[in-house]
Write a structure and sequence with these properties.
3 domains, Rossmann fold, single chain, Beta Polymerase, domain 2, six-stranded parallel β-sheet, 53% helix
């Protein structure tokens, strides 16, 4: 059974998301150790969501929803212990989905429909990298692999068939749009970029689109020189950070480090330099935060962090979003239908084995009498396949309509075939309807 623990900008404060993101490796490791309940996991940690997609061991159907609730509680307790966050706070700041609801949620997330800025393009890559990371650590199961692969195809379909990705704007672009009222001439702005990852590359591209030419880059992990060489900007070493920070009109941070790169004392010293810029705007896109929120109290410093930026997220482009949600809904329905079909697979295999077993026995008996013809055998096998076609189609149709057990019972009654009872679908959508607002 698939389960998803989701804490996002829709359900939690950014401070909580920051704490979860900081402890993502510990949470991933802790979930992997829960062999009794968790068969596999994929953890997605971005600037506005923290989600653990889990393949949990099959529950006793007759014990639902009690067993499902116990499993959910154990997952939340595991996340709480690994992150140091109170379990009650996590429970009130998250949503938990299971079975088909997991697929529908993941498809919506990967298509940008659950982002702060609806339609932003970065999330599809983040989902893909989360799967790749789980593959590398050996925590992906066949069920998780399948749902993430379909999510990737769905997001590509949404991108190609709707205008949602074009209409949607990334957090980087939204932040720069908010900054436009403070900046009259982008070509004259001196920028210090903190960070050298994919988000830094996207930030630099967005800055250059606006005409920025003077960019320096600093890396807390010592990668500035390599990034600067490949992106044609000026690297800043640790000894020169204070000077670069003082000279910058705009500071954009997007590093993955867990400690504050820019502290109040550091920025205060930079401002005090004789040749420092008169005013500066600091855009903190890091999660965890790269900038100490206390810098906002410094003279002539304005801070835009993720929480502030999210308040100004634009209203959805209604038509594009509606079209995208329709595609996501159709993909989720088809995924659920294909899952339901698996309930009749044992019966179809048993029926096919039974029919072809009888056919093989009759052919063998005919051969023993000297009655052998390749053409006749081929015709009989073709006839058996034709006769099995309609029951196969009908069985899958019944399964899609939630009547898999009817087909299993009919197969057993008509042909005397012993088939394991078809699993009944679970219907748990969320642990707490009040917290399942994602």
């Amino acid at each position: 059974m698939l389960l998803c623990f989701s804490s996002s900008h829709r359900t939690a404060e950014f401070d909580l998301l920051e704490r979860l993101e900081r402890h993502a490796p510990a949470v991933t490791a802790a979930l992997a150790e829960q062999h009794g309940i968790v068969a596999g996991s994929v953890v997605l940690a971005t600037c506005n969501r923290f989600e653990a997609y889990l393949d949990v061991h099959a529950l006793d159907v007759d014990a639902q929803p009690l067993a499902a609730g116990a499993t959910t509680d154990q997952v939340i307790e595991t996340v709480a212990a690994a992150s140091g966050i109170d379990a009650a706070l996590l429970r009130s700041s998250s949503a938990v989905y299971s079975d088909d609801a997991v697929a529908e949620h993941l498809f919506s997330v990967s298509s940008g429909l659950e982002s702060v800025v609806v339609g932003e393009g970065e999330i599809a890559g983040q989902v893909r990298r989360a799967l790749e990371s789980a593959r590398a650590s050996g925590t992906v199961t066949a069920s998780l692999e399948r749902v993430f692969q379909v999510a990737s195809r769905t997001s590509r379909g949404v991108k190609n068939q709707t205008g949602i990705m074009t209409a949607g704007r990334s957090m980087v672009r939204l932040a720069l749009e908010l900054a436009e009222s403070r900046i009259s001439d982008w070509a004259a702005v001196r920028v210090l970029l903190v960070g050298t990852g994919k988000y830094a590359g996207a930030s630099l591209a967005a800055l250059r689109e606006r005409g920025v030419v003077d960019v320096q880059v600093f890396s807390p992990t010592g990668r500035a020189a390599k990034f600067a060489l490949s992106h044609d900007v000026v690297p800043v070493e640790s000894d020169d950070l204070l000077e670069a920070l003082g000279a910058a009109d705009l500071v954009v941070t997007c590093s993955a480090v867990t400690d504050h790169v820019i502290t109040r004392s550091l920025l205060a010293d930079a401002i005090a330099a004789p040749d420092a810029a008169e005013r500066r705007l600091v855009i903190d896109l890091g999660l965890p935060r790269n900038v100490d929120p206390a810098v906002a109290a410094l003279r002539d410093v304005e801070l835009l962090d993720l929480e502030t930026i999210s308040i100004h997220a634009p209203v959805e482009e209604l038509n594009a979003a509606a079209d995208a949600r329709e595609l996501v809904g159709a993909a989720a329905a088809e995924f659920a239908a294909q899952n339901a079909e698996q309930a009749v697979t044992p019966a179809l295999v048993a029926l096919r084995t039974h029919v072809f077993g009888i056919l093989d026995a009759e052919i063998a008996r005919a051969r023993s009498r000297g009655d052998s013809s390749e053409q006749t055998e081929a015709a009989l096998r073709h006839l058996a396949g034709v006769l099995l076609h309609t029951p196969s189609v009908r069985g899958r149709e019944l399964a899609r309509n939630g009547e898999a057990q009817a087909f299993v019972d009919a197969t057993s009654a008509l042909f005397g075939v012993e088939v394991e009872e078809a699993p009944r679908p679970h219907a748990l959508r969320a642990v707490d309807d009040e917290t399942a607002a994602s």
